[in-house]
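Project standup — Tuesday

K.O.: blocked on the structure for the chain from last sprint. Re-posting the sequence here as requested.
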Amino acid sequence: RNKSQASCVICAGANAADRSFGDSGPDFSPPTVAVVSIEPSRSNFALLRRHAAENRWGEEGFLPLQAALGAEPGQGQLAISEDFAIDEVATLLWDENDTRPKQPVQIITLADAVAEAHNAFPSLGNSASRIFLLKLDIEGLEPTVLRSLLRPNAPA
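H.V.: unblocked you, prediction finished:
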């Protein structure tokens, strides 16, 4: 259980998540933290959900989002490198000569991710409206996303 009072953690470019709370029997208690995992690739997201289910990550407020993180919401095309043994590398940064397979992806902002956490875990109250910890591994878009935190009302 979370004892730190940290209420919203976002992990983008993650290998994570299942939203279920597992056994909601008599020992069930609502989460004390929201851990939001953002993964754009379909196959990596499926792998993350499998790991989450196997390890019961959903019991402490784990929220998986299949999306890409960006400075503005919208739709994009994800270029996929499928030649890795465990998972694939995917990026929104590619040019017209890139021959890798593409897959459509929803792009969300940090504010969108925080709103999803707040909606998924209302028992956290307003404490889930700010990011406590942000981990980014998003294939070159880190500066763009970090600059978005300079906006008024950024959730950090």
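K.O.: great, moving the ticket to review. The first strand starts at residue 8 and ends at 12. The longest helix spans residues 42-55.
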